[in-house]
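Can't paste images in this forum, so I'm doing it all in text. The chain is below; anyone willing to post the predicted structure tokens underneath?
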Amino acid sequence: MHGLGNDFIVIDAISQSINLTTEQICQLADRHFGIGCDQLLLVEKPTVAEAEFRYRIFNADGGEVEQCGNGARCFAIFVRQQGLTKNSKIAVETAGGLIELNVADEQVTVNMGVPDFQPQSLPFLAEKPAESYDLMVNEAEYAIGAVSMGNPHAVMLIDDLDAVDIGALGSAIESHERFPNRVNAGFMQVINRQEIRLRVFERGAGETRACGTGACAAVAVGHKLGLLDEAVTVHLRGGDLTIQWPGEGQALLMTGPATTVFDGSINIEN
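Text version of the structure:
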């Protein structure tokens, strides 16, 4: 499946027994020797009463992460296509907390919860919360915003996205010592108060064509800086997402498509 080109292997771990090792996840994610994906998603039974499903996310390097917005939309379409639920409103347990998925045709709106700007929530090493922080990267100083959307994000304002080496700068930010658990690095170009362009270097996956939590994080940071309105269209390389955020203390909503590419089976080496 994919959400705006951010692609996923989605596995039903309710109807079958699944216990993947890190090496097996890497094998599946390999685009030459496996199926190929940015992330692998597991659909499991919930461990809390409030949720209908548990949603687990593994990056292509085998590391488990807390949240993935594009994956959440694919998750919602998948469980309905597979007959695991008939509900159009689906409560899902993630490592980053509970989220709510609302399906209408091929569009899915995800209640991503309240953006968390507390540095310890990412975690990010800073003395106190601030709208922006100075970060020394490759012997140059950059201003970033830092926010958790259930997973950690650093967001940098950029005048011209096409003129930035996203690979080099994103990799350096991802593994920066001030982010002990690494971080997703977003690069945002503001077009106007209702539109931005965004590229994201994802933790453990590299630059992807779209990043749902990255789009949420960018809008939250831009709104907090007074640069953006409540409803914003985010132009990613894979397509557009609509983000709505009323502001501080309020839940953020993300709306976009999810697409099934193919179904199949694979034998996994032990």
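Residues 34 and 120 are 37 Å apart (CA to CA). The chain is about 15% helix and 35% strand.
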